[in-house]
Amino acid sequence: MSVHTFSSGLPPARRSGIRRMMARDSLFRRVDWLLLLAAGGLTVLGCLLVWSATWTRTDINEGDPHFFLIRHALNAAIGIALAVGVMWLGHQRLRSAVPVFYGFSIVLLLLVFTPLGTEINGQRAWLSIAGYTVQPGEFAKVAVILGMATVLAAQVDAGDRDHPAGRPVLQALGLAALPLAIVVVDDMGMAMVIGMIVLGVLLASGATIFWTFGLMAAGAAGAVLVWTLGVLDEYQINRFAAFANPELDPAGAGYNTNQARIAIGSGGLTGTGLFQGSQTTGQFVPEQQTDFIFTVAGEELGFVGGAGIILLIAVLLWRALRIARGATDLYSTIIAAGLVAWLAFQSFENIGMALGIMPVAGIPLPFVSYGGTAMMASWIAIGLLESIRMKRTLSA
Amino acid sequence: MSNIPETGRTSRVTIRLVVLQILVFSLLLTLAGRLWYLQIRQGDEFAAEAAGNHVQNVIQPAVRGAILDARGVPLADNETRLVVSADRTDLLRMPDDGEQVLTDLAGLLEMDPEEVRNRVRLCDSETPQPCWNGSPYQPIPITDEATVQQALQIWERPESYPGIVAQPTAVRRYPAPYGAHTAQVLGYLSPVTDEEVAESQQTDSPLQRYDQIGRSGLERTYDEYLRGGAGIDRLEVDKFGRVIGEAEGVEAEAGANLVTSIDSRIQAVVEHELLQAMKQARQAHDDISGRNYEADSGAAIVMESHTGRIVAMASYPDYDPNVWVGGISAKEYQRLTGEEANDPLLNRAIQGQSPAGSTFKVVTSSGAVRAGYDFDGNYECSSSYSIGNTTFKNFESRGYGPISLGKALEVSCNTVFYRLAHAEWQKDGGINPGENPNDWLFDTAHGFGLGSETGIDLPSEAAGRVPDRAWKREYWETNKDAWCELGKEEGDDFAHRYARESCEDGWRLRAGDAVNFSIGQGDLLVTPIQMASVYSAINNGGTLYRPTVGKAIVDVNGNVVEEFEPVENGKLPIEKGTVSDLQGALRDVIEVGTASWRFIGWPQDEIPLSAKTGTATTEGKQSRSWLTTFSEDYTVVMTIDQAGTGSGASGPAVRNIYEAIYGVDEQGAIHPELALLPEPPAELPRTDDNGTMAAEFDKEWEQHFAAYKKEHQENYEGAAIVPAGDGEDGDGAGDFQAGAEAGTGDGTGEVLAGAAFEADRRREGTGGDG
């Protein structure tokens, strides 16, 4: 990245270059470095944790202890490249491409139900393309945010109104409802995340608070309906039951939650050290490189490591919220707030289920969990946030 | 915030964003708080849980210590057998849960596939035996009788038998040296129950689910010494049970050896002689019952008179202790416990309770002396003695005129003791006793250790019963309701009359009770070990020793961990002079008295023996033979139920035992080289540098004994039937029970504490129809 060419080995002759770089409107000053640092820190930690969780897993790493590490780092690199691309294009320039991006995401989501779709752990949320598995839901999250922002901000940014009217709100809700309807049965985690994104977006859009509360009521009613109609699969119900009482069936549905808590609890203050966790090596916690990656941090890095991850996430969200507050138009504000709602809820749900305070749902920890699509989507979010920040500073 | 420029946002959006910010950070704070709670507040608990999560304990059973005889010859030890076991975790990883492997294995071992599968399944409340009760990580034994060929198949074709191991393993074995079973004394092992495991966790030697523990005999009493400490291999496993490492474990600690005072050669002789005497008795005709003697059970004890140590202890019927090895089958167990088996598990030497008959007269004599009667005084030995309208007859109605107590013992005169007992009963107030009756006879019985356990180091010893006033009252309290009930019914037979009478004042000690007691009859119950203790005390000058089988605990390195010194239970409540008087009288029993006809030609000057014969009767059964004897160092007691008189049924057997101990031949010549144990061994068996105890197995004698047994058997089989009651002893079975007061049972069946004993059971059940 350009950042590195600027900062590495600067000869005295380039002084004027440095001055230019440090100028108020320079690209260097316009980038939110704390945001990048937080996202980068989480990504590096993620590499280490994925490595530690998989180096003994000869059953899935094809005999190469670095198999997952290499692939994870590659995913991160692609993600960072995408972020740079988004920054270069700028979110405003992408505004016109939003309908295309949105439509493409919906098509991908629907493809899951074709023979291209793959079922993993009871969830049909993956596409298998040329040997790679893609989780289209991750892109759909970004698409929903961008789509809703476009519709909600149109009149306000044009100066016609100072907050979105009922019609665009309904349109925006429609944009969210489509992917929600597609995934709700097979990917409960995804559905929950979209729900939270919608709430965050509506809140930040300045639309009447009636919409937010109304939507929450509708969501609650919908949950009751889904439950009573028996749309949920048994495994989904079991996960909730196990969340309510893990001791109920410690070998069955409550097993994951119990073992996750044991792994984290046994870490203590400083943990066992990377690659030293016996719970991790013993594979007592399932899906440790993906959904339960936080248990590896908890066991091997202890409270220091676990709290460090939470702190990095807090820094990331703090910077993102600052960017939302500083955005020059509603379109940008909504995007930033939507990204915050997405990343915040997803982090909370993921760490919360590892800590046993949230029900188990297949949701990755942004930047940390193994998974290419999720990693790319997360870095695209960073690219969008940086783009908003650069635009604001530029226009200031 | 100063660098944030003005934007086009409305204030509403700003407020909304602040709300979002608060929401987001409270969520993150919740996570941090929860993380702190799990890792810092409760971290230790989870660490402990995690430790248990991934370490599996695999028990390495300790080799159980051996039980050795006084010369180091093993009575119980371990043999190496090829045990084939299955690893459940390996089997379950196969697509068919190991079905095919188990079926193949069953074929190889020539076992029923169904049974092999059943052995491997885990026990739960709904699974019938056989099933595996131990840890699923423990290899589950399928057979301990694999041949080398079968084991080789498993070793050489591991790919055909995945999850199956064959390895040499120590298995308990009872070698029965010289053919001596020593069955009930050794006892047996069986797997622990879950409750026992749970209970033992707080003790110094917690049990493992894999353990076998002693259930009876020495195996039980000395279990903690013999068991040793199981080792634990601590294997780190992953969630699939695959071993990923090994944590520091605990080495198995072999159990210590128990050296006993048993001399397996004498034990073999005693078992042989007891059985032969029983067989012999079955050929004799009983004039009273009109059929041959049943001789269905018996016991014999050889004890060191000056220490209480048991040299031999036999009980018939017995069994081969090796039936327990490798787990007893249901069929075998049924055979041991079934009706026909007649309780071979019972050690009648310590659990068999019956009246003592005339062997009790040493107690009566002692009581009389304590009450002030002169041992050498003159007491009328008439042919019968009447109390009210009941006549108590002497054996074969024979009278001797006025004789001393010593002479009364020698000829076993009943009427002398009837008279004494009746006079004492009257002195104590008769049917209406005073405040504190002397009860010299009952008191002396207690003083001789009767009515209480001797404390022998074998479990479930019976206490016997001294039917004194306290017992009579207690017995009446328990039974009066039933008696009164029965008394109300129509009927004029003995049971009804007895019930009617007992309902009112069954607690009273009647003249008949006192008189019967004086000759060791009535409600008195003794065990053979109590009689051995009593006669040892008379022999050694008056000390009652606690009988012991265990002599020392020796660890695997040959170090003596603990040596059990003789323990005194107390002193006989009589003067030294009286002891001497009794000794003289008992010696006369051998020389001129009731046992003399069995000891003709015995080298009495070189090896003086003393004895008392007894013939005890129990309603509804044939006479029980009692013979209590002692030499300078040993007390030998033999009793055979339903076999006739003391000297008649047991005499030759007891003499043969002495002949073996002292090396005396049938003509009475002494051969010191043939003497097995002319003196009790002073030392423990030697141990060599490795800690191995030198087993002085007597090969030469083994051959001698084999030849003797063969000859002996032929002799017996060819021998003329010995006329029963040819001896002069005997208590006149049936003679004295005519009186109403002699009856005992009430038909309700009293349940005695301790082991049930057949004599007692039948006794309580007959109702005494007089």
Automatic annotation (TrEMBL), chain A:
Molecular-function GO term, any one: lipid-linked peptidoglycan transporter activity
Domain of life: Bacteria
Top enzyme class: transferase
One GO BP annotation of this record: cell division
Pathway: Cell wall biogenesis; peptidoglycan biosynthesis
The UniProt record lists the keyword Repressor: no
Catalytic activity: [GlcNAc-(1->4)-Mur2Ac(oyl-L-Ala-gamma-D-Glu-L-Lys-D-Ala-D-Ala)](n)-di-trans,octa-cis-undecaprenyl diphosphate + beta-D-GlcNAc-(1->4)-Mur2Ac(oyl-L-Ala-gamma-D-Glu-L-Lys-D-Ala-D-Ala)-di-trans,octa-cis-undecaprenyl diphosphate = [GlcNAc-(1->4)-Mur2Ac(oyl-L-Ala-gamma-D-Glu-L-Lys-D-Ala-D-Ala)](n+1)-di-trans,octa-cis-undecaprenyl diphosphate + di-trans,octa-cis-undecaprenyl diphosphate + H(+)
Name this polypeptide is given: peptidoglycan glycosyltransferase
Membrane-protein topology: Multi-pass membrane protein
Keyword Transmembrane found: yes
Organism (species): Streptomyces aidingensis
GO cellular component assignments: cell division site; plasma membrane
Localization (cell): Membrane
Keywords: Cell shape, Membrane, Transmembrane, Transmembrane helix
TrEMBL record, chain B:
Major place of residence: membrane
InterPro entries: Beta-lactam/transpept, Beta-lactam/transpept-like, PBP_dimer, PBP_dimer_sf, PCN-bd_Tpept, Penicillin-binding_protein_2
Compartments where located: Cell membrane; Membrane
GO CC terms: plasma membrane
Pfam families the UniProt entry points to: PBP_dimer (PF03717), Transpeptidase (PF00905)
Assigned keywords, A-Z: Cell inner membrane, Cell membrane, Cell shape, Cell wall biogenesis/degradation, Hydrolase, Membrane, Peptidoglycan synthesis, Protease, Transmembrane, Transmembrane helix
Tree of life domain: Bacteria
Gene Ontology terms, MF aspect: penicillin binding; peptidoglycan L,D-transpeptidase activity; serine-type D-Ala-D-Ala carboxypeptidase activity
UniProt entry tagged with the keyword Nucleotide-binding: no
Domain Penicillin-binding protein transpeptidase: 298-659
Residue ranges of the region described as Disordered: 725-749
Gene3D superfamilies on file: DD-peptidase/beta-lactamase superfamily (3.40.710.10), Penicillin-binding protein 2a (Domain 2) (3.90.1310.10)
Membrane topology: Single-pass membrane protein
Domain Penicillin-binding protein dimerisation: 60-246
One of the GO BP terms on file: peptidoglycan biosynthetic process
Record family assignment: Belongs to the transpeptidase family.
Family annotation (PANTHER family): PEPTIDOGLYCAN D,D-TRANSPEPTIDASE, PEPTIDOGLYCAN D,D-TRANSPEPTIDASE MRDA
Protein's name according to its UniProt entry: Penicillin-binding protein 2
Organism: Streptomyces aidingensis
